[in-house]
Amino acid sequence: MVSTTTTFFTATTTPTPLSSSLHSKKPHSLTLPNSKFNHFSPSKHPKPITHSSRPTTPSLPKSFPEDSPTAVSATSPLNLKSRLRSGETLYDLFLLSFSPTLVEIAGLAGYNFVVNDMEHGHDGISEALPCLHALAASGTAAILRVPEATAAWAKKALDIGPQGIMFPMVKSAAKVVPYCRFPPAGIRGSARLIVRASAYDIDKGYLNNYLNEILIMCQVKSLEGVKKIDDCDT
């Protein structure tokens, strides 16, 4: 026969109310010995953060007028077109990929402008737009190389707001330049109220200064084009 013994334990101390326990405890605090943060004073400013050694990219001027509709001029030292005219050496990168990440890396790497190639690349206007956003974020100029030298492609490309356009297989610059100009100087259709190029009509000076900002590049690859090479200085 197995006998069992049961033992009962009785608390002999009076429990402390929870509210009293909470008020009797001091809040926890963390102190860092010999730390400059222990005695912070608003009058003591931390050292400024220095920039990294990453090459800086020039900021291109925006067309938003501040004082007048022609606030941006062709003589601006930050304008891609004027920089080339002044004889400055600029560096660019051709990209067949339309990955906004790769495009942004190219801009952050220090290139002055990036050419998104729609002639041999597999993408089009819809894929080029995010690339222009990425380049704008890094302050890098964007050039769009269109698949062919036509008025329709020029209009679509310029409406999304690149700093320049590149036409392939140009036989006469006098023929393609009007594709980039509004009447009466050209045949480009105007939709400034709804396109990115004019900041969706926020840029009221767009029609006055777009010629100073758009760089028209012509690729000559034929004997006929070479004979009319002087037209490229239009």
Would you kindly provide a written description of the structure presented here, covering whatever features stand out?
This protein is α/β, with parallel strands linked by helices. It contains eight helices and five strands. The chain has a five-stranded parallel beta sheet with strand order 1-2-3-4-5. The termini are far apart.
Total number of β-strand segments?
5
Q: By helix and strand content, what is the structural category? A: alpha/beta
> Largest beta sheet, briefly?
5 strands, parallel
Percent of residues in helices: 25-40%
- Gap between N and C termini: 118 Å
Report strand %: 5-15%
In brief, what are we looking at here?
By secondary structure, this protein is an alpha/beta fold.
Sum up the structure in keywords:
five-stranded parallel sheet; single chain; 8 helices; globular; TIM Barrel; alpha/beta
How are the secondary structure elements laid out?
Elements: H1 18-24, H2 80-85, E1 92-95, H3 100-108, E2 113-117, H4 125-137, E3 141-145, H5 151-159, E4 164-167, H6 173-176, H7 206-213, E5 215-218, H8 223-227
Helix pairs in contact: 3-4
